[in-house]
UniProtKB/TrEMBL annotation:
Compositionally biased spans, kind Basic and acidic residues: 137-154
Source taxon at top rank: Bacteria
Listed transmembrane segments: none
Name of the protein described by the UniProt record: Adenylate kinase
Region (Disordered): 137-167
Family matches, as SUPFAM superfamilies: P-loop containing nucleoside triphosphate hydrolases (SSF52540)
Alphabetized InterPro entries for the sequence: DNMK (IPR048444), P-loop_NTPase (IPR027417)
Any Pfam family matching the protein: DNMK
Length: 185
């Protein structure tokens, strides 16, 4: 767990690549839903009339990590995800836990890269998962104050974790910290 831009996906990718962990993200089905909706998330100037940019265009060109740096993309994901949570708080949780069930059944270690809500953290802790907070000094997340203060960014600020990784150096240094968490298969 950690704020946007802290290094959660970087740590997750390391565990997947080096130790064959299964990657699980609560937001994977959310991103899929957002692509199905495919809203306009920006405009590209042309000198005459701007061209609207759909989410799928931005993701195809920039990838999800860079696309989430665009305020309208992050806002879309936050609002869509929260809208579903408002109808069913456990919806995203059920999908992720089903994936975790399969990994456990096959004895594949798993990393959940985007725990952002208390019900998610409690469910993972009840499953015996190690809860790790990743902190990165400075401002690296969303540019807008509304996005930085969104519930998905702040709800777990004071939630107790089992370990803390401080992402204050190079990517290689973060990898070394991630490696210490892993138990090779």
């Amino acid at each position: 767990m950690g704020r946007a831009g802290s290094g959660k996906d970087t740590v997750g990718s390391r565990l997947v690549q080096r130790f064959a962990f299964a990657r699980i993200a609560f937001a994977d089905p959310l991103r899929s839903l957002a692509l199905d909706v495919d809203p306009i998330v920006g405009h590209e100037p042309t000198g005459f009339e701007p061209i609207p940019l759909r989410l799928s265009d931005v993701v195809r060109r920039e990838g999800w990590d860079r696309a989430k740096g665009r305020p309208e993309v992050r806002r879309t994901l936050q609002r869509l995800g929260q809208g579903v949570r408002d109808q069913d708080e456990r919806y995203w949780l059920r999908l992720a836990l089903a994936k975790l069930d399969v990994a456990e059944r096959w004895h594949i270690p798993a990393v959940v890269t985007d725990c952002r809500y208390e019900n998610e953290a409690r469910a993972l802790r009840a499953r015996g998962c190690l809860l790790v907070r990743i902190e990165r000094p400075g401002e690296h997340g969303p540019a807008g104050e509304d996005e930085r203060q969104h519930r998905s960014e702040t709800e777990l600020d004071d939630f107790p974790t089992d370990a803390l990784l401080t992402n204050g150096g190079s990517v290689d240094e973060l990898y070394a910290l991630a490696d210490r968490l892993a138990v090779p298969r």
